[in-house]
Amino acid sequence: MAKPARGDGSLPGFVMLLFLQMLPTGHGKADFYVLAPQDPLLAIVGEDTELPCSLAPSISAQGMELRWYREQPTPAVHVRVGGRDAQEEQMVEYRGRTALVSGLDWGVAALRIHNVTTFDNGTYHCLFKEHTSYSHATLWLKVAGLGAAPQIQVIDKQDQGIWATCSSAGWYPEPRVEWRDLRGQTLPAVIRVSVSAATGLFGVVSSVAPQDRAIDGLTCSISNPLLSESKVAARRLPCEYSVPFCLHNHCAPCPRPCTPGTREGLVLPGAAGSGQLALSTALLGTR
């Protein structure tokens, strides 16, 4: 259940004091409270989200000033005053991306943010003011981005053996990467992470050098820590890596052809549903 809030410890005290000093003189004690969700709200990159606030008791907010803001009250994410949106007080980053979804007659208001970005992640405050009375509440928005399907590249470095590299971009926050062989055993890997200055999205490149020649193939799973979803890629290793030689165009001991470009279906353990995940992968050609 939502609880009212009168202040926010994360907001610098002097900034709030300065803003309150700008309000008309009066007792400042409101006959209402602002309610907001206690738990963080989850938003997806590129989609729309809403930040709901409401009054208790349920009174009309039609004549009130409504203000959503981040670290400081002005410039703000969205301001409604005098029955209109005050765009001159809005942060540049939110211009053209916000709209008030209201039931103001009942003291209900929600701020809709269009086309969510990683920079929308964090703390928000909503303030309702009537004459000299005001109250505000704090909301937390967690932004998540599900990246592109990972791509696996297998390289034979001769003296260093086989290296497999898994890459993907478009994740937020920083994703988790896990390598497994086709028996389901996890493999140690090297992970390099980068962040786009323009979008704030994470890219990841992970490499693994399997030492066990009995390994027939690999899977690379990349997951978002805020979502229950992950993306998986699978790849068989070259025939000549798994066994010392190919005999009669087959790799012993497994009877799969050593034909370049052959596509095979991989059945991977541990996926949701039936417990198996069918993926299509391409064999690396023989040298």
From TrEMBL:
Biological process terms in GO annotation: regulation of cytokine production; T cell receptor signaling pathway
Gene3D superfamilies found in the cross-reference section: Immunoglobulins
InterPro entries attached to this UniProt entry: BTN3A2-like_Ig-C (IPR053896), Ig-like_dom (IPR007110), Ig-like_dom_sf (IPR036179), Ig-like_fold (IPR013783), Ig_sub (IPR003599), Ig_V-set (IPR013106), IgSF_BTN/MOG (IPR050504)
Keyword set, alphabetical order: Immunoglobulin domain, Membrane, Signal, Transmembrane, Transmembrane helix
Domain (Ig-like): residue spans on this chain: 12-126
Cellular compartments per GO CC: external side of plasma membrane
Pfam families for this protein: C2-set_3, V-set
Domain of life: Eukaryota
Subcellular location: Membrane
Coiled-coil regions, chain positions: none
SUPFAM superfamilies assigned to the protein according to its UniProt record, in alphabetical order: Immunoglobulin
Signal peptide: 1-28
GO molecular function, one term: signaling receptor binding
Full protein name: Butyrophilin-like protein 10
